[in-house]
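Model it.
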Amino acid sequence: MMLLDNIGFVANMMSFVVYFSSVMHFDITGAATNTTNYLGTAFLLTILGGFISDAYMTRLNTALFFGILQLLGYLLLIIQSHFQKLQPQPCGESTCVHGGKALLLYTSVYLTALGAGGIRGCIPALGADQFEQNDSKKNSKNISSFFNWFLLSITIGASIGVTVVVWVSTNVGWDKGFIISIVCCFAGLCFVSMGKPFYRVRVPGESPLLRVLQVLVAAARNWSVQLPTDKHQLYEIREPNSVSLLQEHLLDKAAVQLEGTNKQGKWRLCTVTQVEEVKILTRMMPILLSTTIMNTCLAQLQTISVQEGTLMDPSLGKFDVPSASIPVIPLVFMSLLIPIYEFLFVPVMRMFTGHPTGITHLQRVGVGLVLSAISMAIAGAVEVKRKNEFNHHNHRTSLFWLSFHYAIFGIADMFTLVGLMEFFYSEAPAGMRSLSTSFSFLSLSIGYYLSSAFVELINSITSKFTSNKQGWLQGRDMNKNHVELFYWFLAILSLLNFGNYVFWANWYKYKKDGPVDKQKLLHPDFSVTMSMTSQQAISTSDGERKKEQN
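Modeled.
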C-alpha cells in the first residue's frame, strides 16, 4: 500500500513547487512557502491519524477513511489542473490566485494533505502490530526489519513518483500526473483492504491524549500535596511491580491518594501506570525536537534545490531530466543501501554490540544528523559553482551536480527516519503506539514549518544589510540572491543541533519491556473469527477491569 501511495505523494512533494510557480503563478518564496506549508500540514496531521487509530477506530479502518479523503483531494486537483478557466492568469505579483480559484486550490491541496497524513499516522503501527509480542529480543529484531522494508517500499514508490509521475506532469500535463496519483492511491487502498481477514487487530482503547491530559491536570491540582516516602502508597489498580519504575518526579503527584477523601475522579487521581506512560512521552520530546533541524534541511531539497535545478543543464544524452526528478538519485542510493544495511551492516554490528538491531535507535538517528549537516555544506558549495558558471561564463552547470548533496541526505534519511520510527514504536506504551509512531512524522512537520519561518526571518534580517535591500532568498532571479549562504547557515545550525542531540540521547534511559495486554491484540480480525467463548471471556475481563477502575 505505502509503495503505491508514495508514488503520488512524493511526486507532489517534489513537483508542487513547480506547479505553484508555473501554473498558479506564485513567486519563488511563495511557491516554496506553500509547498513547505503543505508538507508541514500533511506530516502534522499524522498525529490525528495516530490518535484516531489508538482511541476510536482500528488502524486499518483509519487508513481507509483517510485514504478516501486523499482521493477527494486528488480529484479536485485533477479538475483545477485540467480546466484553464479555474487557473489564475500571470500578474507579476507574489501571488496571483484569489477568490474561488484560491478556495479550490487550497481545498484540494489540504484535503490531500489530510488524507496522506492520516494514513501515515496509523499504517506503520498496523504493520508492526503483526509481530508476536512475547519474545522481546526477537520482537525487537523483527520490528527493526519491518521498518527497514517499510522504508524500502516507500523509497521504491518515491522513485517511481519523482521520475514517471513528475515527467508526465511537467511534459504531458499536470492533470495526467494527478490521474496517475489517484489511481495508485486507490490501488493501494484495495491492496491493504485485502489483508483484512489476516491482520492482528488492536482494539481501540481509551483516548491516549485524554489519559495524558488527566495526568497533567491531576498533577497540577495536587501541586501542594506531599509525595509519600513509600512509593507503594501511590494509587495503582494493576500489578504492584509497576511502582518499581517510579523515580522522583512532579507528575507522581497525580497518583497521590488524598487522606479523608472517599472518592477522587480521574481528573484528580491517576494510576501509577498512567503516570509512567506520560513520563515516557515527556522523555521522548527532547529527542523529537532535536531532529527538527534536519527536516528543515530536507525542506530545502524539496523546494529551493528543485528551483535551482530549473536553471541548470538538464540533458542526459538526448533526454532532458525534470529538475523535480533529481531526488531519484538519493532514492536509488537508499534502495540499494537498505538491503545492504539489513543483511550486512546489522549482522556485523550485532556481533560487536550484541544489540538485536546492530546499533541502538538513537545511535542510528545520530548518524543521520551528522550526514545532514555535511549535505547542507556541500549544497552551498554546489550553488557557488552554479552561480559562478552562469554569471561569469554564461554556462549552465549540469543538473547532476545536485546529486552529491541529495545522495548524502538520502543516506542520512535512511538512518534517521527508520531510527525514529523504531524508537517511538518500541518505547511507547502499548495503547499509544500509533500516536507515538506518528511523532517521527511530527518532526518532519515541525521542520517544514520551521523552514517557512526561517525563509521569512532570514529575508527580513538580511534585507537590512544588503546593498539592494533584498534578503538572501528574495526575488525571482536565483542568480542574484544568496542561497549558498542560507545552506551554510543551516549546516552550522545542524552541527550545533547535533551537540544538543548528543546531550539528550545520553540523558535518555530506555524503558524496560512490560507485560503485553494480549486482550488488545487479537488474531485474526476480532469482529469475524473470534469464537463466542473468547468474546465472553474478554467481555467478562473488561467488566471486571472497569469495576476495579470505578
